[in-house]
């Protein structure tokens, strides 16, 4: 392609407004597009040619055949789009796709009781196990609803869901049968404190197609125990660790995200905990680590929590992730999944998602349980739902619709201004995700993990 | 160019 053709090319194509890029210390360039979800890396040698393809008048104007290859790659993955493309319309259309009625995500609070009393917990434990009439209602509802579903995902939640495994068993069997009859794909995940996650219980859950778990460890031994003790007192660390280590012997597919919550009181402890986690789980990539800052979410201890300031949160998340990868751990797929189209939208903002309490109350958000506008109605024993659609509309249309900054943001296809509608309601501020706030660090983390995975593959294939 | 996650793969998810 000569210079004239290069000019012609630039008249036909433009860089996508949904691109983000990260230059890293190793000289490589990482590109990301939030509309296609594509992520690609380029060597230092390719870097200038890529930038020149994307931005006219860029670094260098050396054109050869390998440029053609780069150009076609940039087009294929959406980094370059046709000049006439209306990308804002694309984002709008993508937003509307979330209204698809053939998928459903239910967050089920099978009990609202918990055997832990974590010092930062936002729950108030007013109710215990899911009532029988609510269980009957869920079974009746899904019997009918599954007929028009292509996919059903259940999040088992609480409280501590493993206090009531018999309820999970019963509902799972019922949902799986309904999906089997309709041909819908069924999947489930669970947030558990891990105290009752014995090997036997774990394999029961795998049989019920619960394949993704989130279990929290906030540091080693005493550090964890002072933050996440038993109701009535007592440590929990050793029991959880013994349980998790026993699961390594299970020769089946699963994903366990070991979540580490940090605040100003355990920053150094978390850093020291990473090699401990590596010694336990570094040899099993089914165990992944997920670092999250503690926030004031409405718990009774909120005023006493040593939460990090926003700048510290932003720095520490990515510092811990890089330290974990360097140590030989695998970081959670939550990070790269958040970068998928609509991947950062909270279930509270998705029209086809509901939280159902143990007493049958319907919610959108699983945090603001006492907030009136978050109580949408109730499920009856016959499977009918009483639902306030004005409240549903409030949670699902309070994102980018009225926020010009969100409308013009590179991350719009991923979050649609709806990463946390509760945060926007409570503060009036944009609820940008940690990944978006530090997109260069997030892309670097994903790149580092990819490099580590490839190095491991080479080792294992030799 | 090394593709860490392709557009097509993303569309599937």
Tell me what you see in this structure.
- The complex is a heterodimer of chains A (462) and B (13).
- With 462 residues, chain A is α/β, with parallel strands linked by helices.
- Chain A folds into two domains: 3-85, Outer Surface Protein A, domain 3, CATH 3.90.930; 86-462, TIM Barrel, CATH 3.20.20.70.
- Chain A is built from 18 helices and 18 strands.
- In chain A, the strands form four sheets. Chain A has an eleven-stranded mixed beta sheet with strand order 14-13-12-10-9-8-6-15-16-17-18.
- In chain A, helix 6 links the parallel strand 8 (151-157) and strand 9 (185-191).
- Residues 58-62 of chain A have low confidence and may be disordered.
- The N and C termini of chain B lie far apart (22 Å).
- Chain B is α+β, with helices and mostly antiparallel strands and 13 residues long.
- In chain B, 31% of the residues are buried.
- The chains are: A alpha/beta (462), B alpha+beta (13).
- The A-B interface holds A 30, 33, 36-42, 46, 50, 69-70, 73, 76-78, 336-337, 340-341, 446-447, 450 and B 1-7, 9-11, 13.
- Strand 4 (39-42) of chain A pairs antiparallel with strand 1 (2-5) of chain B, so a sheet runs across the interface.
